[in-house]
Q: What sequence folds into this?
């Protein structure tokens, strides 16, 4: 079945350092979404990427969808303590109307002040 | 915008006891609804999804069942809980409009500990 892996599993950075998490799917994706889950909280939708090679930015966050639509990355510039949490990618293969997204394994980010 | 109400927030249940978690949605009609489970420090596993009243699809064989008695109500149940049923249960609704996909809106979740 379809699998979505993320690396690294954990990342500790000093405040002000950059951070990147990578998402890899075993199959080509129709689109990919990114979510952030704060400690003790629930996942919150950040963004969706649809086009091959697409790059989107949200302030210090940069999201990229691979040319083959099988991988994606999230890069945070100059991390802040508010960036702490687990970042998940979620991909879907087809447009079936069920919107069954397969979530990645997540990358837990800790920012040291 | 959509709001998902999920309760209770935490639950401690003995092995073999029944379970009923309820999720209700506001701000939309005929939503796609989902139950996810997250084991401690792990990713999200899709358990069930529903595209309409009485329509339930199960993603993994397990000790749980789901029902959708009303358009905006989604219930997760078990007749006899197992230790392995412990986890963080999240109800979600898929949001889209005007041709734009806004992703899942999650409820605040229920932390279930089976003892």
A:
């Amino acid at each position: 079945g379809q699998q979505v892996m993320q690396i690294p599993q954990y990342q500790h950075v000093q405040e002000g350092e950059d951070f990147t998490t990578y998402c890899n799917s075993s199959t080509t994706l129709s689109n990919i979404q990114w979510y952030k889950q704060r400690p003790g909280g629930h996942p919150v939708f950040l963004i969706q990427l649809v086009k091959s090679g697409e790059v989107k930015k949200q302030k210090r966050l940069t999201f990229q969808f691979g040319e083959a639509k099988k991988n994606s990355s999230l890069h945070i510039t100059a991390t802040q303590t508010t960036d702490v949490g687990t970042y998940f990618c979620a991909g879907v293969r087809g447009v079936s109307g069920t919107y069954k997204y397969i979530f990645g394994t997540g990358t837990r980010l800790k920012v040291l002040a | 915008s959509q709001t998902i109400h999920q309760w209770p927030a935490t639950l401690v249940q003995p092995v073999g006891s029944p379970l009923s978690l309820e999720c209700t949605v506001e701000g939309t009609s005929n939503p796609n609804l989902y139950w996810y489970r997250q084991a401690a420090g792990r990713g999200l596993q899709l358990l069930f999804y529903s595209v309409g009243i009485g329509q339930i699809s199960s993603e993994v064989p397990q000790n749980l069942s789901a029902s959708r008695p009303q358009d905006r109500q989604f219930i997760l149940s078990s007749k006899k809980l197992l230790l392995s049923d412990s986890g963080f249960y999240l109800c979600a609704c898929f949001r889209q409009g005007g041709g734009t996909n806004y992703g899942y809106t999650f409820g605040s979740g229920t932390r279930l500990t089976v003892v």
